[in-house]
Amino acid sequence: MNFTQYHQTILSKNVWTKTILLFLFFFAAFTTVNAQMVEPVKWTSKIEKKSGNNAVIIFEGTIDKDWHVYSQFTPDGGPLALEISFKNQKGNYELVGKAKEGKTKKAFNDIFGVDEIFFEGKARIEQEITIVNPNLKTVEAELDYQVCKEVCINSNKKFTIAIPGNFNVAAIPTVSEVKQDETKRVGLAIDTAVKTPTASEKIEVKKTDNVAAEVVNEAEKPASSRSLSSIFFIAFLSGFAALLTPCVFPMIPMTVSFFTKQSKSRAKGIRNAIIYGLSIIAIYVILGLIVTKIFGADALNALSTDVWFNLIFFVILIIFATSFLGAFEIMLPNSWANKADQQADRGGIIGILFMALALAIVSFSCTGPIVGTLLVEAASNGGIAPVVGMLGFSSALALPFMFFAMFPGYLNSLPKSGGWLNTVKVVLGFLELALAFKFLSNADLVLQLHFLEREVFIAIWIAIFAALTLYLFGKITLPHDSPMQHISVGRLYLGLLTLVFTMYLVPGLWGAPLKLISAFPPPPQYSESPFGVGGSGNGTTSSGTIKGLPEGAELGPHGIMVFHDYEDGVAYAKEINKPIMLDFTGYACVNCRKMENNVWSDPTVLPILKNDVVLISLYVDDKRELPKEKQFVTKAGDKIITVGDRWTDFMISKYKTNTQPLYVITDLEGNNLNSSKPTISYVSTAEYLHWLKEGIGNFR
Questions:
Q1: What predicted TM-score, i.e. pTM, was given to this entire model?
Q2: Which helix or strand (DSSP H or E) is residue 436 part of?
Q3: How far apart are CA 481 and CA 476, in angstroms?
Q4: In sequence order, which residues have a C-beta less than 8 Å from that of residue 121 and are 6 or more positions away?
């Protein structure tokens, strides 16, 4: 019925009743459809004059609760990073540096094996520009970003930002014109294409082939999300380990006895010991403040992504480890300790402070490597993390002195100094050695040299921890070890623990994920066998390398055959008469990987995906450009240029949602087979299995 016929019909009946009912019907339908279109971020923009012809473009987003938007500094190989593009830049304005970000968080993602950086609650992005066209009226910009909760949405926002009328922009030469003019004027050959960055300037590290990439600027580096409490706890444990080394442990009874004997009363002895402990804490906290002051709150974080920094720190850790293993001692000049001792003889609070300083200097051969490692690890998180790290370390170091001064009777319960102290030092040496290869691996990843691929890294760790196991069992002795007739029970247990850990590492050579150490080795794709030995891992393999696969098919997660083109998948489904499962996913979709790793791998689900459906995975963040003849403009005016654009438009127009993961089971004509839930997203294994069986059952 066309509109004219409908209009004539309702005139002959109860016009008002039917019109209202029809209006309510369409309103409800419209509301239902559009309720699925999720927009968790509300953006605003503005421009502020800075100085001269410079201005700052500010984008501010309000993010719904529990959602987060990934930063432009999120590494490649992880979730989709935010991108900013300026559409009318040429001839109108030039960008000044990279866009700066407001407060962000950082957290390690064990699915992708990278640190993801994201906004929560609020997002703020600032881009400084230099306006070169005095007649410029607007700045046109676009944000492409990914926002996630239990599902992920790839979204974009276009801005047209008006230049205020009182801006008074004067025509000025472009940066390139200034440089050219300057070159001619002074007669210098300036290579404007190459510039060596300083430590305070942008350090850019690019990693390709799905390996983490980070672009960091000292002024724009986002805040870390690793909690200060966790940094304190790790540093506290490190301080406790340093306490059990031969440089520090024997000092406890000696120092406490000195305070108790030299003090005129027990109360004064306790007070002096407390001052001594607080002095130790003050010394290390001041060290943390100095590091933060010299390098800046975030500079070490930027350096941590640099090739040379990682190589230098690898060498330093090798030196520390070699020292701990007994090859030589790392000591500060003796004159420093002598001067501190002389000042300690002055007595009073100043004397106690210098006693603490003398302890720090004398024990440096044991504490120095631990402190150095902690400072870099803590400083790489930015902010006051170095101070918090040193507070945790020094607290563990100081507490025993204060405790035993308050309760000197417990001194007799301390174990006697002996060979076990050197054992602690050697164990720390092995741990430093293993940690060193993490930094060498970082440098190798950045340069894409493939010298230290995942299998090689794991093999090195197996060798290190196997050697540690043999040492703990007494099969290997090192220079400063005491002769022993037997090993202690504690040493036996520790040896068994390292043996179990070594055996745990071995399957990693054949593609096991090794989730316990996922933050350390290179990601699975950076290996000789990215899909595990025999191609059975979680990667994908081209159809050209697997015999018997139909045209356009690949082996996907867990060996499931998958198509990445809708038409190819539908054609094959019609050929074998099986239902189709559409998987709207993304390369950077965290929860898509979680569903694949945790739900698809379930023994009740995996056989169904392998045998009972034709899986078509459509990546909405696929940036490959479509052939010109397949590019088009939607009714809403959106340009469909990339493969990902095509699948995003398909998902929105067909299923009225823009979230991933999104799963749909259809028949051979594209009709939904699930009546209760036509589509499903991030759910439990039981719910997913029930949904699968319902859809397949309806097809049959």
A1: 0.46
A2: helix 419-447
A3: 10
A4: 62, 63, 65
Give the lowest-confidence range in 265-269, 333-337, 553-557, 690-694: 333-337
Lowest mean pLDDT among 417-431, 521-535, 562-576: 521-535
Could you identify the residue written with the tokens 């000044």? 96
Q: What percent of the chain lies above the pLDDT cut of 90? A: 22
DSSP state of 543: G
Residues 670, 674, 676, 681: is their CA dihedral positive or negative?
Answer: negative
- CA atoms of 581 and 524, how far apart (whole Å): 27
Report pLDDT for 20: 44
pLDDT of amino acid 523:
66
632 — phi, psi (to 5°)? -155, 175
Mean pLDDT of the chain: 77
Please state the rounded mean pLDDT for residues 583-592: 80
Closest CA to 282 of 379, 357, 386: 357
Q: Highest mean pLDDT range out of 11-15, 228-232, 240-244?
A: 240-244
Rounded CA separation 518/446 (Å): 18
Q: What is the pLDDT of residue 464?
A: 96
Burial class (CB in 10 A: 0-12, 13-18, 19+), 137: exposed
The Cβ of residue 412 has, within 10 Å, a number of other Cβ atoms equal to: 7
User: Which residue type sits at 57?
Assistant: I
Cα separation of 523 and 508, whole Å? 11
Q: What is the 3-state secondary structure (H, E, C) of 317-348?
A: HHHHHHHHCCCCCCCCCHHHHHHHHHHHCCCH
> Residue 257 is which amino acid?
S
Where does 157-265 have alpha helices with state H? 175-186, 228-243, 251-262
Q: For residue 276, give the H/E element and its range.
A: helix 266-295
Distance CA 664, CA 698 (A): 13
> For 187-201, what is each residue's pLDDT tens digit?
433 333 333 343 333
Q: What tokens appear for 191 in the block?
A: 């290579």
DSSP H or E segment with residue 573: helix 566-576
Apex CA 462: angle with CA 456 and CA 463, to 5°?
A: 90
Question: How many CB atoms within 10 Å of residue 112?
Answer: 23
Longest Cα–Cα distance in the chain: 112
CB 583 within 8 A of CB 692: no
CB atoms within 10 A of CB 520: 16
In whole angstroms, give the CA distance from residue 197 to residue 208. 21
- Taking a C-beta distance cutoff of 8 angstroms, is the pair 563, 582 a contact? no
Helix or strand (DSSP H, E) at 611: helix 606-611
Asked whether the CA dihedral 574, 579, 585, 587 is positive or negative, the reply is negative
Token couple for 546: 């697997």
